[in-house]
Amino acid sequence: MERAERIPFVKMTGSGNDFILVDNRNGLIKPEEGPLFAKKVCRRKLSVGADGLILIEKDGEVDFSWRFYNSDGSEAEMCGNGARCAARFAVLKGIVDSPSMTFRTLAGLIKAEVAGERVRVQIPELHGLKLNIDLRLDENRTAKVHFVNSGVPHVVWILDTKEELEKVDVVGLGRRIRFHENFSPAGTNANFIWVQDRQSVVIRTYERGVEDETLACGTGSIAAAAITVALGLTDPPVSLVTRGGEILRVFFEYDDGRFENLFLEGPALVVYEGSLWDETVR
């Protein structure tokens, strides 16, 4: 995968979820190169380092499409924080000529609205909602969890106190849930939450593909908001306090098990931009 030319990129963060964004409309990074390229460029200390790689591609029907890769090289259907960063990147780089846009992901078409540093994205319909699952973790422990697919699969475990949330083993329990046979073969993300009041939830997330706790997860925040509303614990819109301290807001209408007009809103910030040298990504 040696290259004669350097690859321009922008490093962005969405509430602590960080991404490398590349305008790939010229096809410089081929589809078959994407997984290995993502693994190499997302390595921290050895390359740029990020939770994921976003490649912006040409699309004949909407403003653009993306290919999204987790840091382990796996391709994900959707990423809420990444979607916000992609939308702002498209505005900053002149890929779109309006702050309103539509782009294609593996989870479907995403509509976005950019207002300075804040971006609101419309999320495709949720599906697969299952409440009150008794999940056997080992011979001595069973957890009551909930599940929904908000573009990617998410398990939500509701804890009773803020102290429990602070002490929970997000990585250990998250990994056990992520690879649990109930969610095979694709696996799932795992969210641990505490309901602060009827409008706000504190959340910690173990992300599939990153295989670690991240500072924020947009689709996880959507899942947590939807599940707490379905359980009668919160009312929309719901504010999610992420591990990085940022607040994500989830807007939707809920009626008899149906979620409609679902939006995720939060910051999408530029960290820096530069050019990738071949010697750290080949």
Automatic annotation (TrEMBL):
Single GO cellular component term: cytosol
Pathway involvement of the protein, from the record: Amino-acid biosynthesis; L-lysine biosynthesis via DAP pathway; DL-2,6-diaminopimelate from LL-2,6-diaminopimelate: step 1/1
Binding site for substrate: N17, N70, G80, N81, N189, E207, R208, G218, T219
Keyword Transcription: no
GO BP annotation list: lysine biosynthetic process via diaminopimelate
Cited Pfam families: DAP_epimerase (PF01678)
Isomerase keyword on record: yes
Catalytic activity: (2S,6S)-2,6-diaminopimelate = meso-2,6-diaminopimelate
Catalytic activity, EC: 5.1.1.7
Site feature (Could be important to modulate the pK values of the two catalytic cysteine residues) residues: H154, E207
Example GO molecular function: diaminopimelate epimerase activity
Record's subcellular location: Cytoplasm
Listed Gene3D superfamilies: Diaminopimelate Epimerase, Chain A, domain 1
Keywords, alphabetical: Amino-acid biosynthesis, Cytoplasm, Isomerase, Lysine biosynthesis
Active-site annotation: C79 (proton donor), C79, C217 (proton acceptor)
Family matches, as HAMAP family: DAP_epimerase
Family the UniProt entry places it in: Belongs to the diaminopimelate epimerase family.
Complex formation: Homodimer.
Role noted for this protein: Catalyzes the stereoinversion of LL-2,6-diaminopimelate (L,L-DAP) to meso-diaminopimelate (meso-DAP), a precursor of L-lysine and an essential component of the bacterial peptidoglycan.
Record PANTHER family: DIAMINOPIMELATE EPIMERASE, DIAMINOPIMELATE EPIMERASE, CHLOROPLASTIC
Stated name of the protein: Diaminopimelate epimerase
Organism: Thermodesulforhabdus norvegica
Gene behind this protein: dapF
